[in-house]
Amino acid sequence: MKRLISVFLYVFFVAIVVISTGCSNAATASTSSTTSLSTTIPAQNLTSPMVTNFSPENGATGVPVNQSISVTFTLAMNPSSINTATFILMQGSMPVPGTVSYYGNTAIFTPQDDLSKDTDYSATIDIAIANMEGQHLQNGFTWTFTTGSIDTVDPYIVSTIPSFNSIFPVDPNNPFASNGNVPVNDSITAYFNEAMDPSTINASTLL
User: Which residues form the domain of 160?
Assistant: First the structure.
């Protein structure tokens, strides 16, 4: 009789252990499954691109007939979205033939020929232009300018930061009165007397 009771208790104990182990494994499997089904969304750039600058200015007069038209964006844009269908130059109701290029954050419309003298033009940026994430400009816009004659004056540097000894006027906002005491982490900046072609300013031309 005692042997029968001992056998019964042993079997009961083994059953308890098996059931407990099974429950633990099930809980672990459930936790593992939940972890693998994570729905965390990767961080995305939710800031819409905008135009931060353009040249010539709206309403500008006396614009050189051989000047390119440029627009700078706040974000890196998708170059494939910037072309003659989305960056348009018009003389009245007639589109001006030309090419569109993109450097850094700046798009440039270069007319095929010099523009006409003393003539009104309008430039348009279309809302179809998008950044690298596919976000389009919030608004397209158009601005106008009037040409003068051909630009025969070479561009020149007006001032720099840090400053340099030059016959040209020095920027009054230059925080450095001389070439000395320049912070080791300061950026090198050059100011020109007119808008420049961004494609000509790079590590090879600014050393």
Answer: 153-207
